[in-house]
Amino acid sequence: MEPTLNTLQEAIIYFSNSANCREYVVARRWPDGVICPRCGSDKVRFLEKYNRWQCGARHKNRQFTVKTGTIFEDSPLGLDKWLAAMWQVVNCKNGVSSYEVHRAIGVTQKTAWFMDHRIRLALQNKSFVKLGGAGSVVEVDETFIGGKARNMHKDRRIKMKVRESNWAKTIVMGMLERDGMVRATIVKDRTKPALVPALRDIVEPGSVVYTDEHPAYLAMGSEYVHQIVNHLETYVNGNVHTQGIENFWSLLKRGLNGTYVAVEPFHLFRYVDEQAFRYNHRKNLNDGQRFDLAVRQIVGKRLTWNQLTGKDSEPTTQF
Q1: What is this structure's pTM?
Q2: I need a surface site. Which of 7, 69, 167, 319 has the fewest CB within 10 A?
Q3: Which domains does the chain have, with CATH numbers?
Q4: 145-149, 265-269, 298-302: lowest mean pLDDT where?
C-alpha cells in the first residue's frame, strides 16, 4: 500500500526505491490501468528486466516507459532525482534555485536549471474556465519586473537614454478572484489594447472588477461592474481594494529577487506560472497533496533544450 507522504524526508526515503517511484507515477498517470501512450491500447505487458512496457498492437515504437509523453521524456536521470526536485519546486514558498537543486540531488547546475524549467511547464494552468462570474469579485492589477535604473552605471544610463524608473521592465498583469484563484500573464505595455483583451480572456463577463485608477481600464465597458480605488487618495475604500493581488506580487518578487536573483524576460512567464501554482494551492492542499497534483500534470507536456534556449519553437502541450 502506498504511504501518505507529508514531508520531504518521507518523500526521499520512499522514492529511494526505483520501483516505488515508478508505481507512484503510474498510479497518477494511469489510474485505470496502463495504456500505450502512442495508440491508447490497454493490451500491454510489463518487461521487468528492462523496466518498460510493450504494446500488443503493431505500430512503430511499441515499447514505452512511464516517462514517455511527459516532462521527463528522454531524460537519463532517474525518477528519484526528478521527484525530489519536483517536491522542492512545488513546496518551497519562495522558490528554489537551480544551484540549491544541483547540490541537493547531485546533478550539475545546468541540468538542475533544465529540470526546474520542465517542472514549471507541468505547473502551468491552461484551464479554459474563466475567473469570476455574476456577483464574484476579481482584483486586477499590473506590476513591473526587472532591474532598477538606479542600479545601472551612470555612463550606461546616459548611453541607453534611461529617463524613468520602469525603463525596459517587463509588465505582468494579474487577476485574483476573491477567495479563489490567481491568473497572471505577460503583457507588452499598459495601454488599453493590451490590458482589456487580456482581462476579457480570463475574467467572466458580469464579474465585479476592482482596479486602481489606471485609465486603460475605463474601456472595459458595461460587461463588467467596474469599481476603482484611487491610490492617490487611499489604498482601501470599504471592500474596494487590490490588496490581494498586490500580496501575490509581493510573493512573486520575493522569489525573483531573493531566490532566482536574475531572470531573463524570455523565461519570466515560467516563474510566474510556478508562483501562481503554489499560491493557488497554498491553503487547500498540504505539501504532499500539492506534490501529488503536480505529478498528475506532467503528461502531454514536453520542453526540449532547444525550445528552452530559444533555438526552437515553444514547447508543445497536449490536452
Answers
A1: 0.89
A2: 319
A3: 8-33+69-123+298-317 (no CATH), 137-267 (3.30.420.10)
A4: 145-149
